[in-house]
Specification:
With 233 residues, the chain is mostly helical. The protein has a single domain, classed as YkyA-like (Four Helix Bundle (Hemerythrin (Met), subunit A), Up-down Bundle), CATH 1.20.120. The chain has seven helices and no strands. The longest helix has 43 residues.
């Protein structure tokens, strides 16, 4: 079974667990509930992608430290280590790319959120619905920035390795490469935290909306957050 077929099968399974309100789903509250849960269900393997990324980062950070230590002594000592690390960097990028594909798929339903929310007559429910949509949108936009910065982090790390592999590279050049890598690293960690914060807000605010709207599903699909902070080199 291909990855896409697995994702479709998983989505269908999660959607089957959602209990709809009585009727044909014509009520705006029901329409919004359905759209939110469908979008969340399309992200069901995002936590697994983040967990894989967390494990890969932890492994890479140890390798990164070894490369810096050995590279300070001789570039010949690190060439083999660097070659082994290149594949690991690709795996990290792929894990984040996989998460992006799922988040992009879910976000395609965001227009349905707004259409349903605009139909709400109750001002309090409308306000709560708007808060759900805002949290979801900020979460998605933050991830897009995170994905871009993460790619820059990997590129910066590759630059450090290339500097260490070259025998005539100056110490100053290596230090500059390391500083540039660390700067992007810090930006990535900040974005991860922001993404986690918006994820928490989204999950909490949609539950608040469901309760206020009288929706009592047997299961709500919680959106996943990013992995915990890695170590700076």
């Amino acid at each position: 079974m291909t990855a896409m077929k697995k994702l479709v099968a998983t989505t269908a399974m999660m959607l089957s667990l959602v209990v709809a309100l009585a009727g044909c789903g014509t009520a705006p509250t029901q329409q919004l509930f359905d759209a939110i849960e469908k979008a969340s269900a399309l992200e069901t393997t995002v936590p697994a992608s983040f967990e894989q990324l967390k494990l890969l980062e932890a492994k890479d950070q140890n390798q990164y430290g070894n490369i810096l230590t050995n590279g300070a002594q001789s570039n010949a000592n690190v060439k083999a280590l660097i070659e082994n690390t290149s594949k690991a960097l690709e795996d990290r990028q792929k894990a984040l790319d996989d998460a992006k594909l799922q988040l992009d798929a879910g976000y395609k339903l965001a227009s349905d959120f707004t259409k349903s929310a605009d139909k709400l007559k109750d001002e309090q429910l409308k306000k709560q619905a708007d808060e759900v949509i805002t949290a979801y949108t900020k979460r998605y936009e933050t991830f897009q920035t995170l994905h871009k910065q993460y790619s820059q982090w990997i590129a910066a790390e590759k630059s450090v390795y290339e500097a260490l592999k070259t025998s005539d590279t100056s110490i100053k050049s290596i230090q500059e490469s390391v500083a540039a890598r660390n700067q992007v690293f810090q930006q990535v960690e900040q974005l991860k935290q922001q993404f986690n914060d918006f994820t928490k807000q989204f999950n909490e605010k949609k539950q608040t909306f469901y309760t206020a709207a009288g929706i009592q599903p047997t299961q709500v699909v919680s959106s996943g957050a990013a992995e915990e902070k890695a170590n700076e080199g």
